[in-house]
From TrEMBL:
Protein name in the entry: Protein kinase domain-containing protein
Keyword Oxidoreductase (UniProt): no
Residue segments, region Disordered: 1-25
PANTHER family hit by this protein: OS02G0152300 PROTEIN, OS10G0552400 PROTEIN
Segments forming domain Protein kinase: 60-376
Entry keywords, A to Z: Metal-binding, Ubl conjugation pathway, Zinc, Zinc-finger
Domain of life: Eukaryota
Stretches with biased composition (Pro residues): 16-25
Matches recorded under InterPro entries: Kinase-like_dom_sf, Prot_kinase_dom, U-box_ubiquitin_ligases, Znf_RING, Znf_RING/FYVE/PHD
Entry keyword Metal-binding: yes
UniProt-listed Pfam families: Pkinase, zf-C3HC4_3
Upper classification of the organism: Eukaryota, Sar, Stramenopiles, Bigyra, Opalozoa
Length: 439
């Protein structure tokens, strides 16, 4: 090496010194301070082994059974402190080639799991992962989906564990996510009910609109599938086997707004839905669309207004009571203390979403825009937004937008600004193709 006054000593064989690091963004005199958002991996589903899922459920112990129905059973699971709800599909329902109820087999469930995990929504039950048989041995074990476990569901909150039961309740989805055992029922105030209705609608609008060129239909909207956490915040359950309908080419070419109000039809096999909540075209011909969910949603809203069991005669009476305030007062649940102006708007929603003629029936998105958003603007309710649901960029607004295709969430303002000004997602630096408002 070379030595000398003021000279740098370089030893023979020593690696060259790395150049000095550039100052981090936002640091330095005269620079604009911009928050640096860490890169976050793109969310994706985990694929779990059969041994892990079996151990989490004590080898499918009957003591862990939360509920069962036409498509399988749901078990309470625990893994490394995490509380799971494990849905195991009944192999007798899968038939040949792994095709089961609603035309979904193991391959379709795998695709659905990946789709829902990449496009998360705060009011849709989170899918933690799945367990599927190997391709070369499809009969090795039944497919399973693992969800986060919730405290209870809307049916139990409305009627209690041993109280009035809505006819036809108690399917496999009813236990998905919550055991409900030992949960004491406290009255549901009208503001909480209104927020729950809004959150269910926001989850359905997301399902119907988030996947370009497709309409994902839940096909079994009912209080049993509206799961609640300790704050009575909604997670819509049983989305793992929702029906994903391919939109026709002519529909895909329409604008987003026109596409969302259009009707896309698919024929669905037996085993989907609960008959009290089924739209007429779904029950008679097995046809489903986004407006099928709107009809079921109207029945749920009637139950929130009245706390009466699901019944089509009740739905018809409620829809005809839109302009009859005396009949509305007679129908309303006194426990909720509904203000008449709020109740009247919800009866209007019920009528719009329950038309027998599908062409006249509203979509859930139309109900959101015409009734629910104006209602919440006039009668603000507590948002029940947990700290982790606040935007990670501004830390001021809730995460109400999803970046496509990466699936990261932020507030609509921040997500749009990053796309417009920087042409990238704030988290993964990928280029967004769309920003979807998730209400």
């Amino acid at each position: 090496g070379t030595t000398g006054l003021g000279r740098r000593v370089v030893r023979a064989g020593a690696p060259p010194r790395a150049p000095p690091r550039a100052p981090p963004p936002g640091v330095g005199l005269g620079r604009i301070i911009v928050p640096v958002i860490p890169r976050v991996p793109r969310p994706s589903a985990s694929f779990l082994t059969w041994s892990v899922v079996s151990a989490a459920t004590d080898n499918w112990s009957r003591l862990r059974l939360l509920g069962s129905g036409g498509c399988g059973s749901v078990y309470a699971g625990e893994y490394r402190g995490a509380q799971w709800a494990v849905k195991k599909l009944d192999p007798r329902e899968l038939g040949s080639a792994g095709v089961g109820v609603r035309g979904h087999g193991a391959a379709s469930l795998r695709t659905e799991l990946e789709t829902l995990s990449r496009y998360p929504h705060k009011h849709i039950l989170r899918a933690i992962g799945g367990c599927f048989p190997p391709a070369d041995d499809p009969d090795a074990h039944p497919p399973c989906i693992v969800y986060e476990r919730m405290k209870t569901d809307l049916h139990k909150r409305l009627y209690g564990d041993d109280g009035v039961a809505a006819a036809g309740s108690g399917g496999a989805a009813g236990g998905a996510g919550g055991d409900g055992r030992g949960v004491g029922r406290s009255p549901l105030h009208w503001r909480t009910r209104l927020r729950i209705v809004y959150e269910v609608a926001s989850a359905l609008v997301f399902l119907h609109t988030f996947y370009p060129g497709h309409v994902t239909v839940h096909a079994d909207v009912k209080p049993d599938n509206v799961l609640l956490d300790e704050h009575d915040s909604v997670r819509l359950g049983d989305c793992g086997i929702a029906v994903c309908i391919n939109a026709p080419k002519r529909l895909a070419e329409k604008s987003a707004a026109a596409r969302r109000t259009s009707t896309v039809i698919e024929h669905v096999g037996d085993g989907a839905g609960t008959w009290q909540y089924m739209a007429p075209e779904f029950e008679s011909e097995g046809e489903t669309s986004a407006k099928t969910d709107a009809y079921s949603f109207a029945m749920v809203v009637v139950q929130m207004l009245t706390r009466m069991p699901a019944d089509r005669r009740l739905l018809q009476r409620a829809s005809e009571a839109e302009d009859d305030f005396e009949d509305q007062r007679e129908l309303l649940d006194a426990e909720a203390k509904w203000p008449m102006p709020v109740a009247a708007e919800l009866f209007k929603l019920v009528r719009g979403c329950s038309f027998v003629a599908r062409k006249k029936r509203w979509t859930v998105e139309q109900a959101m825009e015409m009734v629910l958003k104006p209602l919440l603007a006039a009668y603000p309710v507590s948002s029940a937004v947990a700290p982790h649901d606040m935007c990670d960029i501004c830390v001021e607004r809730p995460k109400d937008a999803t970046v496509v295709p990466c699936g990261h969430r932020a507030c609509f303002t921040c997500a749009t600004r990053w796309r417009t000004e920087r042409h990238q997602c704030a988290f993964c630096r990928g280029e967004p193709t769309d920003i979807i408002k998730t209400y």
